């Protein structure tokens, strides 16, 4: 895993240093990502546009086109329009949802397009030539192990899921594996769509329904913000931990400050889109043909190492 990260970093730095010398003919790389509808996707948009600007400036024979979409259906339309109006040598896509985007992406691949999938895997992994993501199973597993150890192996937990995607499934699997064998009981688990407002409402429902909650896991930091506000407004004091995931700077600040309720975090950097774009460019420049999967580690972020994961200038 570390080897993959180091390789990705090396390729990125080498590409910038090499400049246009490797490019042979005009290549078009489309980047299709969700619009900035919450903190993490705002980070994705920021890093995708930064990568496009850097590559378009450094490689006159490569054009990177970034398109954002507010929904799965609009993303389907966007990639179909891109494919119909130009020859796409590569498509770098972070799907809104796995199911809805699988068939449209497969159709584009049938035209000979190199497919790079980021973060949310497609339902059929055979479609992708390259996959770049964080370790979602580790995000759930490492969070669960912290709760098991710090709750003495027992307690009542409520969980907030994101949206129906492969990565959400992986996070939940990791969490369930992490609590297996303990006496932690998941009282409820529902979708809040990685949205702070929806998480606020869902947490209010949990609080009304369950008189004893020892811990909350929102598998995304945007949802965690809604959870924390609901807990604050409720005045409930028995909840020992409310944890999230992804590495939002506001949550990292809590960890750095030694917050009692949110003392740890797990990283899932939106900058992975930038790594994916550079690896895709490398495939076409002759620098390094790249295929396969690249996964980033998800170690537990604590007060001792939080400064390493804190980027105050980032939008996320």
Automatic annotation (TrEMBL):
<keyword id="KW-0732">Signal</keyword>
<dbReference type="InterPro" id="IPR028082">
    <property type="entry name" value="Peripla_BP_I"/>
</dbReference>
<comment type="similarity">
    <text>Belongs to the bacterial solute-binding protein 2 family.</text>
</comment>
<dbReference type="GO" id="GO:0030246">
    <property type="term" value="F:carbohydrate binding"/>
</dbReference>
<feature type="domain" description="Periplasmic binding protein">
    <location>
        <begin position="29"/>
        <end position="286"/>
    </location>
</feature>
<dbReference type="GO" id="GO:0030313">
    <property type="term" value="C:cell envelope"/>
</dbReference>
<protein>
    <submittedName>
        <fullName>Substrate-binding domain-containing protein</fullName>
    </submittedName>
</protein>
<dbReference type="InterPro" id="IPR025997">
    <property type="entry name" value="SBP_2_dom"/>
</dbReference>
<dbReference type="Pfam" id="PF13407">
    <property type="entry name" value="Peripla_BP_4"/>
</dbReference>
<feature type="signal peptide">
    <location>
        <begin position="1"/>
        <end position="23"/>
    </location>
</feature>
């Amino acid at each position: 895993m570390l080897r993959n990260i180091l390789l990705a970093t090396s390729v990125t730095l080498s590409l910038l240093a090499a400049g246009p010398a490797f490019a042979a003919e005009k290549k078009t790389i489309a980047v299709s990502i969700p619009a900035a509808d919450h903190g993490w996707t705002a980070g994705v948009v920021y890093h995708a546009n930064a990568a496009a600007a850097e590559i378009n400036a450094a490689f006159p024979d490569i054009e990177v086109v970034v398109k954002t979409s507010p929904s799965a259906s609009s993303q389907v339309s966007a990639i179909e329009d891109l494919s119909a109006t130009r020859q796409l040598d590569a498509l770098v896509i972070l799907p809104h949802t796995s199911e809805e985007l699988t068939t449209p992406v497969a159709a584009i691949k049938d035209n000979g397009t190199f497919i790079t999938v980021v973060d949310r895997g497609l339902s059929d992994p055979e479609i992708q030539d390259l996959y770049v993501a964080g370790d979602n199973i580790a995000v759930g597993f490492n969070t669960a192990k912290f709760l098991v150890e710090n709750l003495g192996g027992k307690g009542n937990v409520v969980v907030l899921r994101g949206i129906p995607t492969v990565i959400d499934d992986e996070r939940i699997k990791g969490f369930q594996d992490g609590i297996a064998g303990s006496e932690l009981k998941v009282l409820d688990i529902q979708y809040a769509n990685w949205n702070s407002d929806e998480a606020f409402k869902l947490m209010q429902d949990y609080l009304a329904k369950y008189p004893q909650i020892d811990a909350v896991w929102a598998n995304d930091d945007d949802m965690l913000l809604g959870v924390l506000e609901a807990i604050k407004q409720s005045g409930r004091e028995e909840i020992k931990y409310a944890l999230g995931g992804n590495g939002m700077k506001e949550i990292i600040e809590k960890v750095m400050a030694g917050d009692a309720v949110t003392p740890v975090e797990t990283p899932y950097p939106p900058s992975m889109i930038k790594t994916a774009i550079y690896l895709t460019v490398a495939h076409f420049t002759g620098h390094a043909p790249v295929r396969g999967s690249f996964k980033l580690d998800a170690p537990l972020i604590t007060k001792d190492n939080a400064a390493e994961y804190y980027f105050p200038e980032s939008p996320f």
